[in-house]
Amino acid sequence: MGTSVTISAAGERDAEQILKLQYLCFQSEAERYGDYGIAPLTETQEEFRAQLARTTVLVARLGEEIVGAVRASLDEDGTVSVGRLIVHPRLQRHGLGGRLLAGVEQRLAEAGARRYRLVTGGRSEGNQRLYRRYGYTPAGTERDRDVVLLTMVKDAAEPAGV
User: Fold this and answer.
1) 137 has which bridge partners?
2) CA–CA gap between residue 91 and residue 94 (Å, rounded)
3) CB 10 within 8 A of CB 52
4) How many whole angstroms separate alpha carbon 100 and alpha carbon 77?
5) Residue 126 belongs to some domain of the structure
6) pLDDT tens-digit series, residues 44-95
7) Which residues contact 63 (CB under 8 A, 6 or more apart)?
8) How many separate domains does the chain show?
9) Sign, Cα dihedral of 16, 29, 130, 48
């Protein structure tokens, strides 16, 4: 399944499709935490388009359909913040999340990344397993409203994929 999917940079024309997929994908997280006001569900097209202009956004396409996406930004000290990794529910567990994660790591390694950082739900065990498989380790927790978030980090010297 994963071989027929292509990974490429997102463009302005992809914004609406990415946000619709994001809304679908984060329903399970909202349900898990009993909070449908989480940022991925309330982000507007204007907010996303502004972020698209200053971050790296990769998409996974199956034909013309966007079936996955990830965002990342590189700061001055070489830290990449990875976020909003999503894969359409019907295509989960086929390696697309890992391909997107490895793809964004590779792109930003070429731009000078020294470390990667991401935040995931403290109860999102499947997400945590994926990130651990790609070399991320827990680095701390924080609270956002009533949700415990786990920060995970990875040194850029580690391989981008498994």
Assistant:
1) 153
2) 6
3) yes
4) 23
5) yes
6) 999 999 989 899 999 999 999 999 999 999 999 999 999 999 999 999 989 9
7) none
8) 1
9) positive
How many Å apart are CA 33 and CA 123, to the nearest integer?
8
Q: What is the CATH number of the domain that holds 136?
A: 3.40.630.30
Phi, psi of 15 (to 5 degrees): -55, -50
Q: What angle do CA 25, 22, 13 make, to 5 degrees?
A: 145
Instruction: Identify residue 97 by its one-letter amino acid code.
Output: G
Strand partners, 70: 58
CA distance 110 to 114: 10
Using CB atoms within 10 Å of the CB of residue 86, give its burial: 0 to 12 exposed, 13 to 18 middle, 19+ buried. buried
The span from the CA of 36 to the CA of 113, in Å, is: 33
Residue that has been written with the tokens 């830290």 in this structure? 79
